[in-house]
Amino acid sequence: MEKIVITIARQYGSGGKTVGKMVADELGIPFYSRDIIRMASEDSGISEALFGEADEKLRKNFLFRLSKNIYDGDLIPPESDDFVSDKNLFNYQAKIIKQLAETESCVIVGRCADYVLRDYPNVMSVFVHADEEFCFDRAMERNSMPPRELEKYIAKIDKYRGDYYKYYTGQDWTDARNYDLCLNSGKLGFEKCKEEILAYRKVRFGL
Predict the structure, then answer these.
(1) What 3-state class would DSSP assign to 180?
(2) Where are the alpha helices (DSSP H) in 61-131?
(3) Which one of 29, 30, 118, 168 is separated from 201 by 20 to 30 angstroms, measured CA to CA?
(4) Model confidence over 159-187: pLDDT tens digits?
(5) Cα gap 3→123, rounded to integer Å
(6) Which CATH class name applies to 5-205?
(7) What angle do CA 9, 106, 28 make, to 5 degrees?
């Protein structure tokens, strides 16, 4: 069978990760999320903690929202002072994502995988979103915060995801033109989102 990779970007609380896992389980293929960081750490020899620290540094750095470090695919060698720069840490994650796309069918959530694999013919990209109420209710199931505080938290996570995507791709995270398929999980529900992804996969790839 041809190797097909499904990438999923998602708003916080939309259940995109849950939908991705459902798709992977239905197809019997691997599912990757933060596993990408562990695999990039093992491949590069760079501590996994540094990958998390880089993400946190970008999260807190206001200038990160105003700048760009668009992914170009080039790995920085170990002898360079920039070997553990945020750019190179992202590059190693991208390397793993490309290796996965070249060797197996799988579902990959986040990590700008849609952009990294944008030129791969065996890849379909999905963006899962929902209205504020749906995302809030879903987030309430997972977080014990006062409502006002949770609203701010959701907005903060989505802001970071948008900034992260812009920083490494130069494009807008919520722009439908970046994806093959955009699904409103608040209207469809998770099961129908899964069915839509599988239906598109069949139409696109004949599988």
Answers:
(1) coil
(2) 86-103, 113-116
(3) 168
(4) 888 988 988 899 999 999 999 999 999 99
(5) 9
(6) alpha beta
(7) 120
